[in-house]
Amino acid sequence: MRRPGWPGSDKSRRRLIGAASVIAAVVLWQVLTATLASGDVEWPTPWSIVTLIHSDGWSFYWPNVQTTMWEAIKGFFWGNLVAIALAMLILLVPIIEKPMVGLSIISYCLPIVAIGPVLAVSFNGEQPKAILAGMAVFFTTLIGMLVGLRSADETSLDVIRAFGGGRYQMLVKVRLKASLPSLFAALRIAAPAAVLGAIIGEYLGGDNGLGVAMINSEQSLNIAGTWGIALVTTALAGIGYAVVAVVGRLVTPWARSGA
To answer: Domain holding 223: CATH number?
Structure first.
């Protein structure tokens, strides 16, 4: 039931509240940096950051964005592909579930800063960053896929059993479609995680990318530039989230709720 004085749908209200929150945060940031700035703390205003991003231009940002983006995409693709395949294999061969999930938990808990240097000396080029991006998404997608596969309607599964079908038939005909909403929910989380994994890999060693650019900006004490790179990184992660969300809405229109 709509509240009086709130025009439009619930979705429109959520968008309005979200936009208002962002605007309020930016205004508060601008006011605080303008009134509380001191000689000991240098905190750039949003306008100075945006101005610097504009002055640096895409000739600086785009090559770094492109490098990090492709590293994240490679890790996102392969990490999720392995996770999805393993989740389906667990449904077909339940006996491997405990050891496989246990290994995935270990990979999730393994500190990236610990495994990163090992990967850096073991692989060349963009491979270490892509592997770290893949590790960042693997566990989330595996659990999301398993939850989705097990959310299949029991009545539909009973029909498959009644016609003599086994685990494979139930997986292909019922469970895969049932898993899509949960899978895309996991992929939405995995998209920004892949960007983070790639950037951490760049921190541990690399020639190009947003992580490398941020290190160089920090070392040159370019505070506004560091903030600018951070905002561009945030935008890249947000774009990844949004793209996956749009694809999920197109692929699973029946799963839309509260829209």
So the answer is: 1.10.3720.10
The range of the structural domain enclosing residue 246 comes to: 58-255
d(CA 87, CA 110): 20
CA-based end-to-end distance of the chain: 14
Per-residue pLDDT tens over the stretch 4-50: 544 456 767 777 887 787 788 778 877 777 676 555 556 777 777 77
User: Contact 96/167 with Cβ under 8 angstroms?
Assistant: no
If you search the block for the tokens 């989740």, which residue do you land on?
Answer: 87
SS3 124: coil
Beta strands in 220-259 (DSSP E): none
Number of compact structural domains in the chain? 1
pLDDT tens column, 180-201: 999 999 999 999 999 999 998 8
Structure token digits, residue 1: 């039931």
In angstroms, rounded to a whole number, what is the distance separating the alpha carbons of residues 127 and 39? 43
